[in-house]
Write a structure and sequence with these properties.
The structure holds 2 protein chains of 2 kinds. Chain A is of the alpha+beta class. Chain A is built from 17 helices and 22 strands. Classes of the chains: A alpha+beta, B mainly alpha.
């Protein structure tokens, strides 16, 4: 019941924000100006056809474009593709490409570029793309403006269209066809079709892109330049926002306290608007190789010991809410309509379950000890780990928190399985088949991060996941995902009790900011700066 | 010529140490769980196992540790520092790009600390146990006890956010595109706060050393002789005491130059400066062995060079010490 009230409050808050941006949209766009952007974690490459991550989209997504993007309502809208249609069997998908589009070096954009990118990059190198396009057999190019995707197994249109805004960036064939794709210099000096042209990249300092005068959308973009400043220290980045050196900080890159403080400052807006497509849930992962945790009563007891609403209210503030399962409430297409099994805070029940499982309190009231490995990204994970440690102490479970850096965390949890509990983020990427069901599907090879490495297998759940991935009927697909959520919420191989949307901090001079659900990743063709 | 011979001999003597440091670093980093592909996976937000295998081959991690170390050392013998995993460029290029800001920051912070440390140390020694001495010593202690990141952040809040006198970070203003003198002034403006932040801590050490050293020399016989000759106090201090009191300061500079090269991670992060410290930190987090070993190599060379210069300075300051002995 509490959860529902919270969600309502949240939605009301979101609705209240809409009029402000609607008013802004009626102003006449002003040309010119430099948009300075906070770039918190430098990436090895900037090419979104080769690496699917927000750190790449925030830069490369202004220079290169995808076949599709999402519109203000979150529906797929054509960018390099103008229209598309799919055969009823889901084996053939036709994309009609935009005419008159040129690469930054003047060469025309054609279906050959789409074919090359899909077969050589998405299918072979792009993370998540390799899984999504696993059954892509060929891309036919009957003419320069048509690309026909052929699949070996049915590909649901909904899945493809929802995945392509992130996993559908096109790279120029004429630049990449010779030599090793990974070592191509264009990976750090992108050549694209986008509204901004790459100018300069000084590692550890900044990246500059300037207006593309031949952009296919007439009279756009409005900005003269976009400059990304590399600032790793969160407090320093907040200071640069305040001194005006940075106008936009994406993806919750500041300290939680600074996000709340800047949100109260009239010069800035701290909001989840424009990040609805980038929702994440906090996880609690169980290692079934530890016989204590293989007992479902213990897993449920742990879940019942954690007062999630209390934690959110006191540590995360208004940008988080209790989660209800692996599919977040923002996913209108797949969020289950009926109620799913939940684990509310109930310490008495937790104690009873632990007693039933045969773990009586021993010396000092301790039943048993567990190692908890929190992921090093995100202040919220560190806080959540401490909260778990202290809450479980109340029910007689001693928790040792083992903190590692990124490489160490991934290696220990997903390769060496040297953990009892682990906690990090699950990122929901528009469709459960992209990066959600892999957390539950058995058979992932050892070492693949963010996959089922729990030592847990459930043939029935595997079956639901596989059926949903190739189900072309949207209604049946939604029903299958409801079955999936019910099953995993009952079995609880891992728990996703908190839902968060990334927070952006905008200087209020930025107009048309956050006007689509993946704004920080999108092209910024209509963004402009008020004087 | 003599100096050159001396320099070469010094370098040859340091080679075994250098080798030991590099191999030690390499093995130490093997102890940290995870490799550069794990770090890349963390950055990408995931990928399948086949992709990871592919990447390990790409970064040359599919052979054993001994083979990797051997490959590295044989390449180093031809002065090839290898290829940086994070930057996709030769390590030598990456380090060369980062050297100017690091050296600029180091030289300006050290000069600031040395000059004012000397001045304040002399002042405190001449007014020993009176209020100027107490004031200077207390201030020194305060600077020494303050963590540099806090000092840096507070300086940013005051001078950049509230007063808006100085930029909050970065090495130069990229939106303006200055050239010539304007560019030099722009860089200088960006370096004021980092220099102060880094310099103040060292200043505290220098002033205490200088004060103690002055007090010691002031009580020696030759100073009494100088005073007996009828020289003014200022002349005694400037000509006779200062030169002799400088020796510990010069020793300290030699030692600290090394620390400053690697030790400015905090200041570089707070002020978003593209220096070697941040590069080293990033290479550890990203498990980029080549880059990290490259930095260790270059830093070690720099430290050897600086200590060589210090030895020569000793001989200049005190003829009783010969650089060759």
């Amino acid at each position: 019941m509490t959860a529902l009230t919270r969600r309502e409050t949240f939605l009301l808050g979101a609705a209240a924000m809409i009029p402000a941006s609607a008013v802004e949209a009626q102003e006449t766009p002003r040309r010119g100006g430099v948009l300075t952007v906070h770039f918190a974690t430098e990436q090895r490459i900037l090419n979104p056809s080769l690496q699917a991550s927000t750190g790449v989209y925030i830069v490369g997504g202004k220079m290169q474009e995808a076949l599709l993007d999402l519109d203000a309502q979150g529906n797929p809208v054509g960018v390099l593709a103008e229209s598309w249609e799919s055969a009823p069997d889901g084996l053939t998908h036709v994309f009609r490409l935009r005419r008159g589009v040129t690469w930054h070096d003047g060469r025309p954009f054609t279906s050959a570029d789409v074919q090359f990118t899909a077969m050589e990059m998405w299918k072979k190198i792009l993370n998540y793309g390799t899984t999504l396009q696993q059954f892509l057999t060929e891309v036919q190019t009957p003419d320069p403006h048509t690309a026909i995707f052929k699949y070996e197994r049915p590909m649901p249109q909904g899945l493809l269209l929802r995945a392509l805004p992130d996993l559908g960036y096109i790279s120029p064939k004429h630049i990449f066809e010779t030599g090793d794709i990974r070592q191509n210099p264009a990976n750090t000096a992108p050549v694209g079709t986008g509204p901004f042209k790459f100018v300069q990249y000084e590692r550890g300092q900044f990246i500059i892109a300037e207006r593309n005068p031949n952009y296919w959308r007439n009279n756009q973009p409005y900005l003269d330049r976009v400059v990304w400043r590399v600032v790793g220290d969160r407090a320093a980045a907040a200071a640069q926002l305040e001194s005006g050196q940075i106008l936009f900080s994406p993806y919750s890159s500041l300290a939680i306290a600074d996000l709340q403080r800047l949100g109260r400052d009239p010069r800035f807006e701290a909001t989840t608007r424009g990040n609805e497509g980038n929702v994440r849930t906090n996880t609690l992962e169980f290692n079934f190789r530890n016989p204590i945790l293989a007992d479902i009563r213990v897993r449920r007891a742990i879940a019942h010991s954690l007062n999630v609403p209390f934690f959110i209210e006191n540590f995360l503030g208004p940008f988080a809410k209790p989660g209800t399962g692996p599919i977040p409430s923002i996913s209108t297409d797949y969020y289950p309509t009926e109620a799913m099994p939940q684990y509310g805070f109930d310490a008495a029940l937790a104690n009873r379950l632990l007693d039933e499982a045969g773990h009586r309190r021993g010396a000092g009231g301790v039943r048993f000890s567990l190692r908890l490995l929190p992921a090093p990204w995100g202040e919220d994970i560190a806080l959540w780990a401490t909260f778990i440690q202290q809450s479980l102490q109340q029910v007689g479970i001693r928790v040792e928190v083992v903190r590692n850096d990124a490489a160490g965390f991934l290696r220990s949890v997903y390769n060496e399985h040297a953990f009892d509990l682990a906690s990090g983020w699950h990122q929901y990427r528009s469709d459960p088949a992209v990066s959600t069901t892999v957390w539950y599907r058995s058979g992932s090879p050892r070492g693949a991060p963010w996959t089922n490495q729990w030592g847990w297998t459930d043939a029935r759940i595997d079956g639901i996941i596989d059926a949903a991935a190739t189900e072309v009927d949207p209604v049946k697909r939604k029903a299958l995902y409801a079955d999936f959520v019910r099953a995993v919420q009952t079995e609880l191989p891992l728990w996703m009790p908190i839902e968060q949307i990334f927070v952006s901090v905008f200087n209020r001079r930025i107009r048309n900011a956050g006007n689509n659900p993946r704004w920080a990743s999108s092209t910024w063709h209509d963004t402009w700066l008020a004087s | 010529m003599r100096i050159l011979r001396l320099a070469l001999r010094r370098l040859a003597a340091s080679l075994p140490t250098l080798l030991l440091i590099l191999a030690g670093m390499f093995l130490l980093l093997q102890l940290a769980p995870g490799d550069t592909v794990d770090a890349l996976m963390a950055q990408m937000g995931g990928g399948d196992a086949a992709l990871a295998e592919d990447l390990r081959r790409f970064y040359g991690l599919d052979v054993g540790i001994a083979a990797q170390l051997w490959n590295y050392l044989t390449r180093l013998a031809t002065l090839d520092l290898g290829f940086s995993a994070i930057y996709g460029k030769p390590v030598a290029t990456v380090i060369l790009e980062r050297l100017p800001p690091t050296i600029l920051l180091m030289v300006s912070a050290l000069s600031f600390a040395f000059f004012f440390g000397l001045l304040l140390g002399v002042l405190a020694a001449r007014r020993v146990n009176r209020w100027p001495d107490t004031l200077i010593s207390t201030l020194g202690l305060l600077f020494y006890a303050t963590p540099s990141f806090w000092f840096g952040l507070m300086a940013i809040v005051l001078f950049s956010v509230y007063l808006q006198w100085l930029p909050a970070g970065g090495f130069y203003d990229i939106t303006m595109g200055y050239t010539g003198l304007a560019a030099v002034l722009d860089i200088a403006r960006h370096l004021v706060l980092p220099t102060l932040t880094l310099g103040l801590i060292f200043l505290a050490i220098y002033l205490r050393i200088m004060r103690a050293s002055m007090l010691e020399v002031l009580s020696l016989d030759f100073v009494r002789t100088a005073r007996a000759k009828g020289l003014t106090e200022t002349r005694v201090v400037a000509r006779h005491v200062l030169r002799n009191a400088m020796l510990p300061m010069v020793t300290l500079i030699g030692l600290q130059a090394g620390t400053m090269l690697g030790g400015s991670v905090v200041v570089e992060s707070v002020f978003a400066l593209p220096g070697l410290g941040r590069l080293a930190y990033e290479s550890v987090v990203q498990r980029d062995l080549n880059t990290l070993l490259g930095i260790v190599f270059v830093s070690a060379l720099l430290v050897i060079a600086i200590n060589f210069v210090v030895d020569i300075l000793y001989a200049r300051l005190d003829p009783r010490i010969s650089a060759e002995s």
